[in-house]
Amino acid sequence: MSQASTANPATSNAIIPPKEAIQNARANIALSQTALNSSLSYIKQLCLNETGRLSGTRLDDYQLISYELAYSSAENAAARAICDYADNIRQAKGADQDSLFLEEEIALQFCAEAIQNTRNRFSARLAEFGLSFEQFNTAFMNEASLAFCQQYLQTQKLADLGRVMLEQNGRTADYLLDEDKEIMRESFQRFATDVVMPRAEHIHREDLMIPDEILKPLIEMGCFGLSIPEKYDGLLPDDKEDNMGMIVVTEELSRGSLAAAGSLITRPEILSRALLAGGTEEQKKHWLPKLAWADPFCAVAITEPDFGSDVAGMKLKAEKVDGGWVLNGAKTWCTFGGKAGVLLTLARTNPEPGLGHRGLSMFLVEKPSFDGHDFRYEQESGGVLSGKAIPTIGYRGMHSFDVFFDSVFVPDSHLLGGVEGLGKGFYYTMAGFAGGRIQTAARANGLMQAAFEKAIAYSHDRKVFGQPVGHYQLTLCKLAKMATLLTASRQFTYAVGHLMDEGKGQMEASLVKLFACKSSEWLTREAMQIHGGMGYAEETAVSRYWIDARVLSIFEGAEETLALKVIARALIENAV
């Protein structure tokens, strides 16, 4: 048992030996998880219907509790991931060191914060979570848990970590990447710094399209083929997954600019995964090499004006005609829809009432590439495909479009999966979006890194009341929390990437997306706050980071829908 576990939690400054510290964190996170599991089981019993199955209608009566269970589960999963990371750091750097490594300090402070957060959520609505006082006290009010949080959430510890972050100028901790991924990271980091960052503000302020000075080098570097197997002219090994390559590249490009670089490979990621999941071999051979070299660029047309994350409710109509299908209806939030030469489009091929997602199929709709804020394409058959960019407060460069299908003809060859793909569009969508979610977490990490670096630089340079902003205790504590959130989010993302390489991690991809995107909103907000009035000025990059971060919790599964309909539902359904 550690020294801190036997001390008075209100007054103890006892030091937990380094070899026991992470083990101690794991034990306390496990207690927190036990409480979460009990609550999940309690909600499940309340929401079972007469046949013993989980009722979505009943579950909707517990949305607030379900949301908090989902987010606490994501935070706990991040804590376990950062504990694994700390163990790997100690193994890599030397297990016999008597003091804590910086990475271990960051991990311990994050775990203490995660435990404290979950404790606070439960204590506010104990009965609604289905926990007794005894269960709550066992999980959160035991001496070991209280002492752990007291030790690692001390103001002095936070301030000390903040000072280290200032000294390191935005470098939080060792990324612990393999040599090839580190080389890849450094290469795209240089590109983001030298090519993307100097253009990012101009693109944002003038609401411009991404210029060729960014697009062409990225095509040449092969980044559009990261999720496409080598046999189809991509960079992905034929015999294994490599999500880590995609994650590292996305993170560094997003550090340069979320909209002008970091999101470019999201759409080919989604489309290539959908093709690999359900496309015919002929479709794979035709489309995947093209996508690998951005010839054409692609976009995803899923969301509709009346249906966002509720994919099963989509109603864009596809009617069978001789030689193909005719599409009528509208899509919205089709990012890069103007520049794209092909739209991955979800349509209702079977209008029978009650079929829901089983009546949906996926099409590859070709069109010319257009620059600018609107487009109109008239087919020889008379069909018209048109689009208009949606004015947005941020995420400028790619442009998101309202797209209108007026008797647009699509040949049979462009029905994903052919005849066998009819009614399977929802499943192909989900196959694509799993990769999209982990990539969105990587985008959040890159954006957080950029904001953190700016906050550090401003803390050094800006003087208030006679001394630099970074000399003040509150600033130091903010920088410490930024460092812990960023490191936890990054290492959680990496851990999920490795899981997905093993064919696992679908739930974890949703958890890390929820956690990373919410973290990015807080971190970019605090980076902006550290800048004071200048943070609100367009000329300061942190204002763009904050605005761009806001979109992350909306796309690839809106935060509330992701938490309630994907994460909480699955966790509650599988609770025992």
Written overview of the protein:
By secondary structure, the protein is of the alpha+beta class. The chain is built from 18 helices and 10 strands. It has helices at residues 18-47, 56-59, 63-93, 102-124, 133-140, 143-152, 155-168, 179-206, 212-220, 243-256, 258-262, 266-278, 281-292, 425-461, 473-501, 506-530, 541-552, 559-573; strands at residues 298-301, 317-321, 324-335, 342-348, 360-366, 374-378, 384-389, 400-411, 463-464, 467-468. Strands 2-3-8-7-6 form a 5-stranded antiparallel sheet, with no helix packed on it. It is globular. Mean pLDDT is 92; it is low at 1-13.
Spatial arrangement of strands, main beta sheet:
2-3-8-7-6
Classify the secondary structure makeup into a structural class: alpha+beta
Q: Calculate the mean pLDDT score and round it.
A: 92
Order of helices and strands: HHHHHHHHHHHHHEEEEEEEEHEEHHHH
Work out the number of β strands: 10
Shape: globular
The percent range for strand residues is: 5-15%
CA radius of gyration: 25 Å
Biggest β-sheet, characterized? 5 strands, antiparallel
Helix-residue proportion: 55-70%
The count of helical stretches stands at 18
Q: How far from one another are the termini?
A: 30 Å
Low-confidence stretches: 1-13
List keywords for this structure.
alpha+beta
Element layout with pairings:
Elements: H1 18-47, H2 56-59, H3 63-93, H4 102-124, H5 133-140, H6 143-152, H7 155-168, H8 179-206, H9 212-220, H10 243-256, H11 258-262, H12 266-278, H13 281-292, E1 298-301, E2 317-321, E3 324-335, E4 342-348, E5 360-366, E6 374-378, E7 384-389, E8 400-411, H14 425-461, E9 463-464, E10 467-468, H15 473-501, H16 506-530, H17 541-552, H18 559-573
Parallel strand pairs: 1-4
Antiparallel strand pairs: 2-3, 3-8, 4-5, 6-7, 7-8, 9-10
